[in-house]
Specification:
Layout (H helix, E strand, L loop, with lengths): L2 H25 L27 H8 L2 E4 L2 E4 L13 H9 L11 H18 L11 H13 L1 H5 L4 H21 L7 H16 L4 H18 L11 H21 L7 H14 L18 H8 L11 E2 L4 E6 L2 E6 L19 E5 L2 E5 L9 H6 L9 E3 L5 E3 L9 E4 L3 E5 L7 E7 L3 H4 L2 E8 L5 E9 L12 E8 L4 E6 L2 E5 L5 E5 L6 E7 L7 E11 L5 E9 L1
Antiparallel strand pairs: 1-2, 3-4, 4-5, 5-6, 6-7, 7-15, 8-15, 9-10, 11-12, 12-13, 13-14, 14-21, 15-20, 16-17, 17-18, 18-21, 19-20
Helix pairs in contact: 3-5, 4-7, 5-7, 5-8, 8-9, 8-10, 10-11, 10-12
Subcellular location: Cell envelope
Organism: Shinella oryzae
Pfam families: Hepar_II_III_C (PF07940)
């Protein structure tokens, strides 16, 4: 390890130690007594929930079976909180109470009885002692939103004692969340806390000063996290959708009640929509970059129907650093950036310069995506450069991800500079040349990628190159690079020769990957971002022994 690496790690350890100490100091001693207080006598409104609901899931829950996070827990007549839960993600979903939405679609009496039984058990088992996953700020924020949104189900035919316990707990959780908001992990968790507090300030009786304070704090977080191009500071394409599912009901609740809107709420929503369209393939799926997982069609449509911004997708998102080459029905999306900060890198991938390519409704080349419900080991595997459609050097990721439990899975080194040059043509063709220094410190090489889409949209040409900075033509002594093209599982592969493979979609559309410089290998692969779970797939690779082949050119051409 070089001295600079040691210095960087020392800084990161000291920084994390200071952050933890400061948070503990700011929070002080957390106890139930500290956040005790009065309870509202009623709720003013039940905000809308735009998340899709599933009647089958609702029937399962009323029958005592919880289908959450890719697992099913059969309670056999007991409360789920009395049982060992299948996974941490399952526990997050259970304690967040978003599953209440599914009960809207089943028999109202059964739904109300089930909801009251489980909420009441949560109040007994977790509502009195602050601690553990149930009181993680982002989980508490989701629970507050869910309890407010689905209070008609929970409170239907409820007796007065339960009604008071429910409202008292809501008020208690809101007071707790106000106290921990500033110390919540940066990114989506902190913004969701501010959304929940703004929602509570208008859905529950509150003083005018508390409503103004909640609106101001939300404004500050929106202004900081929703960047000028509409992208979220995490650089996760899926974040835009998840945030809209909360921001749109919040906006509508402000409108319905006639309250003054937070100043940044509508402008932020208006900025997010074009960024969401930027990442959308023509088949409706969102691109799989930097923590994004699969997107169900009904999730996307539930927010796109409120889109009033219109217009064609942008060609680039300069604030979060992505580029889009779109000619006719052909779309190539490229990651041309790096994490905005260390704090925002916990789900960021080592996929700089990776691409996704679609034509019409078919995705042909993708990244492997993030598994939604898999364990931590598999989630970290999905962040490696090899899980992206880009080149790796010497089986090494372009960005280094910490394995320290103390630091967490942050990015601790690698890419520090990305150069991008756009090459739009009057003919309608489009191209981009980009390079990064992720392999410079360890191997002394710069990686450069050139992507060009023809004016007809029927051909994509690519060039992959490794070179020494300051001496682009100098010989490279050693090293092996592998360029990977992860193929969507729905695409069939048919080798035509050592240098050509055809990619055929279910509707018959076909493209051919050709590389005359070296042979194309077909290998086993894993697609992490499938709704059914981790799924087997295929990948095409170009292996470059750099002493002999420091540069290769390839093409993808449509075949009728």
């Amino acid at each position: 390890m070089q001295l600079s690496d040691r210095q960087r790690l020392l800084y990161l350890y000291l920084r994390e130690g200071w952050r933890r100490f400061s948070r503990r100091l700011a929070l002080g001693k957390i106890s139930a007594v500290r956040f005790s207080g009065g309870a509202p006598d009623r709720l003013i409104v039940a905000p809308t929930d735009l998340h899709p609901a599933d009647s089958f899931a609702g029937e399962e829950i009323t029958a005592g079976r919880f289908p959450l996070a890719g697992r099913v827990l059969d309670c056999e007549g007991e409360s789920p909180f009395a049982l060992e839960l299948p996974s941490e993600e399952f526990a997050v979903r259970l304690h967040s109470f978003g599953w209440l939405r599914h009960l809207r679609l089943v028999d109202p009496d059964k739904a109300a009885h089930t909801a009251r039984f489980i909420v009441d058990d949560w109040l007994q088992s977790h509502g009195r002692v602050i601690g553990g996953l149930a009181w993680r700020p982002d989980v508490a924020a989701q629970r507050i939103i869910a309890w407010l949104s689905h209070s008609p189900v929970v409170l239907k035919d409820a007796d007065y004692p339960f009604y008071r316990r429910f409202l008292k707990s809501l008020a208690f959780q809101v007071r707790y969340l106000r106290h921990v908001a500033d110390t919540t992990r940066d990114g989506e968790p902190r913004l969701r806390v501010r959304i929940a507090l703004a929602m509570a300030s208008i859905a529950m009786p509150a003083t005018a000063s508390k409503m103004r304070s909640a609106a101001r704090n939300l404004d500050a977080e929106l202004d900081r996290q929703i960047l000028p191009d509409g992208g979220h500071c995490s650089r996760n394409p899926r974040a835009a959708l998840d945030l809209l599912l909360d921001l749109l009901p919040l906006r509508q609740t402000y409108v319905n009640l006639g309250h003054d809107m937070p100043l940044q709420l509508i402008p932020s929503i208006d900025r997010i929509y074009p960024a969401l369209r930027f990442f959308r393939h023509q088949g409706g799926e969102l691109a799989l970059f930097n923590g994004a997982t699969y997107t169900l069609a009904n999730e996307l449509m539930s927010v796109l129907r409120y889109d009033e911004t219109g217009g064609a997708p942008f060609k680039a998102l300069p604030s979060i650093n992505y580029d889009r080459l779109a000619v006719k029905e052909t779309v190539v999306l490229m990651d041309t950036g790096m994490p905005k900060s260390i704090d925002l890198s916990t789900t960021h991938s080592a996929g700089t310069l990776s691409i996704e390519m679609s034509s019409g409704k078919n995705r042909f080349i993708v990244n492997s995506g993030r598994p939604r419900f898999a364990g931590d080991a598999m989630r970290q595997m999905a962040r490696m450069t090899a899980a992206h459609s880009v080149a790796t050097l010497n089986d090494t990721s372009s960005s280094r991800i910490s394995t320290s439990r103390f630091l967490g899975p942050i990015i601790i080194g690698g890419v520090s500079k990305v150069n991008v040059a756009r090459a739009e043509r009057d003919s309608g063709a489009d191209g981009i040349t980009a390079s990064h220094d992720g392999y410079l410190q360890r191997f002394g090489l710069i990686y450069e990628r050139d992507i060009f889409v023809s004016a007809s949209g029927t051909e994509i040409r690519g060039r992959e190159r490794f070179f020494k900075p300051g001496a682009p033509g100098a010989a490279i002594d050693k090293g092996t690079a592998v360029v990977r093209f992860h193929v969507h599982p729905n695409i069939q592969l048919y080798p035509a020769s050592d240098n050509e493979v055809r990619l055929v979609a279910p509707d018959g559309e076909a493209w051919a990957l050709t590389c005359l410089d070296i042979g194309i290998e077909e290998e086993e692969d894993v697609f992490f971002a499938d709704p059914s779970g981790v799924r087997a797939s295929r990948q095409l690779t170009l292996t470059m022994p750099l002493a002999e082949t420091p540069e290769v050119q390839w093409s993808l051409a449509r075949r009728r």
